[in-house]
Write a structure and sequence with these properties.
Helix content: 25-40%
Radius of gyration: 19 Å
Largest sheet: 9 strands, mixed
Length: 341
Amino acid sequence: MYRNHPVFSAIRTLVIGLAISFLPKLSTAQRNPASPPIADPDDTRFIGVKEDWTTPALNTSSLKAVPPIVGYINQYPDRTVELLRAQWRFGDPLDLYVVKPHGIKKSPVIIYLYGYPADTDTFKNEAWQRAVTKDGFAAVGFVSALTGHRYHDRPLKEWFLSDLQECLAVSAHDVQMVLNYLATRDDLDMDHVGMLAEGSGASIAILASAVDPRIRVLDAVDPWGDWPGWMASSPFVPAEERPDYLKPEYLKKVSALDPVDWLSKVQAKAFRLQDAVFEPNTPKACKEKLRAAVPAPTTVVVYNTLKEYQSAINGNKEMDWLRGDLRALPQQHHDVGSLDH
């Protein structure tokens, strides 16, 4: 069974400010046959690892990061592109892209997390790489749980929405584990870390920012949230599966990870919520609850039409706010390495 997504899903995934046609459209591969198994039953590296899916915080989980495997390091005249395979739980290696501009000793860094079902194609795109490293910024990108190359070894009936609690918690943990890894490097400015996220990725970013102050600037575009209302009304939910997602046991599991409840706890020093109200995946009533829940002094930007949205992001203007607020942050006077949550 293949899933169809509204045309706007393809457009809003480009929301890094590149309102241009070179970026790939979203894949609908999540209901294709799963990729060949990659979970080696003889892998003993993660014995003792436990993960708590009831919270975005890491203090009740015991993930174990192993040294990342280098896939490649490509040198270009203006940038270096690294593909790393990171892992901290059994059977779930994660492709991590690190794109750095040349000539900067320690670059401020922006983490990119796009919404389900976007895969890693964007991170491989040379035009995207040039754009995100403009003005001396580094870019780090990966995809959420049960998305793209991370969808494997599962029955077809299991996917992002059916296992939403897992996907939200695991991906929020991933953000923090990626930050832990980045802090071990000496080529990134961990006092100036931002995050730009979209759709379900924005929901995950909100959860992560609420428990990790290292995300100092957050730009969240069209987050999903208000799970009871979202599951009842979102056209993204397959009609034949909707009754399962309205059952009390399902809603109870995801209620602890509702962005509406975590927005007030966001720790970013600068936070912007962008809301394209014409985007259909998140119902209007849910969007209103999300906007009402943001803490002061969050910047809230509402786009009523696609034309307004395209005008706002044309010419890479989308990145101006995040980059400006990130550069304005002072250096911190403490070690910003791995945090214990």
